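hey so u asked for the seq, here:
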Amino acid sequence: MADTGWRIGIDIGGTFTDVALVDESSGRIGVVKVPTTPDDFGRGVLEGIQTALVKYGIGADAVSLLSHATTVVTNAILEKKGARCALVATRGFRDVLELRRSSRPDLYDLFQDAPHVLIPRRHRFEITERIGADASVVTDLAEEEIPALIDAIRGAEPEAIAVSLLFSFLNPDHERRLGVVLRAAFPDIPVYLSSEVLPEIREFERTSTTAVCAYVGPILRTYLARLSEATGSLGLPDLYVMGSNGGVFEAREGVAMPAMAVESGPAAGVVAAALVAEQTGHRDILSFDMGGTTAKASLIRDAAYETTPEYEVGGGASGSRTMLGTGQPIRVPVIDLAEVSAGGGSIAWVDRAGALRVGPRSAGAVPGPVCYGRGGEEPTVTDCNLVLGYLDQASLLGGEMEIDLDAARKAIAAKLAEPLGIDVRTAAAGVIDVVNHEMAEALRIVSVQRGHDPRDFTLAAFGGAGPLHAAALAEELEMRHVLCPPIPGAFSALGLVTTDLRRDYARTFFVRTDQAEAGELAVAFEALAMEGRAMLDRAGVPEDRQRLIRTVDARYGRQSYELVVPVPEPPFGPDVMDRIAEAFHARHAQTYGHARPDEPVQLVNVRLSAIGEIPAVRLGQSTGDGAADKGSRTVWFRHHGEHMATVLRREAMAAEQTVVGAAVIESLESTILVPPGWSARMDADGFVHLDRRESNG
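ran it, structure tokens below
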């Protein structure tokens, strides 16, 4: 990575592909939005990059960092379009993927379907071997069975192979020996070993994570290879990919561990929000990202986001949160967030009981909302915002996209207002109320359900539609301050160029804090540190920018799941285990409301994050001369009625310029709604602050 130049981040959304640019020397920010191309995502990415280079007069040789958030991994699982895979397991354990855990999304539904199994039984094979729970060899690897195994696998014509043998996380010898033979026999397809992918306790999760890697690995490899070749032909630097843990990694690292790319796009927005918390001094933030198809919420405490090692990709949702037991479990660090099917393109409809519903279906990029004039016939959240006057009723994207207001009105009338027996504005306002409530629930999940009071936080709203709904969400959660950063409509793309290089490593370390020695912990972490430093060296990260963060997964002895607890910096003193136990008790009390300081703490895994620090960039956008008045228009609120709202151009607002609601602040890629009872102020860095002036009932 070069130290100076332009950084470019590309984020593929459900409706638009966003390209954000930052000049490292001046802090200048640029943004380009182009329609997403679902038939070939790479085509939209290249179009966005080329448009951005031309628009801002940047040569390819002036680009120092190129980062990309991809949905390839998640989409392959959601759409069940992954690679054809084979799985090799210890004899007698080929059905681990189907036996799963006992988690059920609905305790009372006796006929619910189990989640889709990525590798069918006919493609799951066994070999005689056995490692014991103490890492000893119970039954040696049956070398004589390998030729027949290879023939059987070849008959399945797999595109990838997963290997998950019993207790290989303690003793990987059998897996490694088998891996050598399989890689020699199948040199053109990837072989994923669970001892390399996830050397952790829990057989099902380890097998599931390895299977996910095999299922999506060939697709991700092909996608990244084509995209890297295309960007390289433009003279751009090596491509980096956003990881679910909040850091970017080299494309080759992603091919080795594809599961790291789950929730790539949402993670980028949270990273940018954490930078906002650091820069503005509002260090406790609820991050809210609303785009075209989904809305995401995350909590940032003291300018830092949290990750969780437990995640299900491709799972279903009930209202506002993922239901356990509906997706494919993976054990990789994922930024702790809640996601709902609520975006500008979410379709509103009336169910058979006569109730107004929003989502989960979305109009997406094609055909999009009715008002876009691209063939959409189902009313969406965007259409409702338009009819209520919150959006410019002539055009969007700075005049580049003409809007059909009349078509939106007719769709709402036919599909919503007439079936419900109400007028068009009331129906549109009802849609906004429903979607706001769903999104508020997501914010409660990451705050109230994590032991935090949202009233103690600032709401950071971004995404193309986030600032439009932010004040209403803040009112529902009794929050008094909202922060809208520069280029909110491409804020996730901006996060791609403000984050660090990062890769996470883990090993099982199953001991009690009152029985372990500091030296044992040091040895376990040093093994991970060697891997992390090697990765950073390969990426060319200077030693003075290399940073290692150590944590442990801990629980009480009778619990089944763990909490992540930070570990003091080495060298470890003799009291390190006591300090870890104290930190766990405090974390348990904060999360669950109680703790047992007299009970021993069980360590399960040690974790290390290897970070290559990228020089920080200060976010900001130049303010205008104050001549921001664009006129006024009628807006309508369910609880406040009709108002004549002041309309301002965001780019022309001067520092410390203030407007009292009702008002609308418009920019190229997003709109801020300031309801009655709220005021908005532009600060010197281009951030818009919304403050609640009175109780709005």
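The longest strand covers residues 501-512. Confidence is low (pLDDT under 50) at residues 316-323.
lmk if thats what u needed
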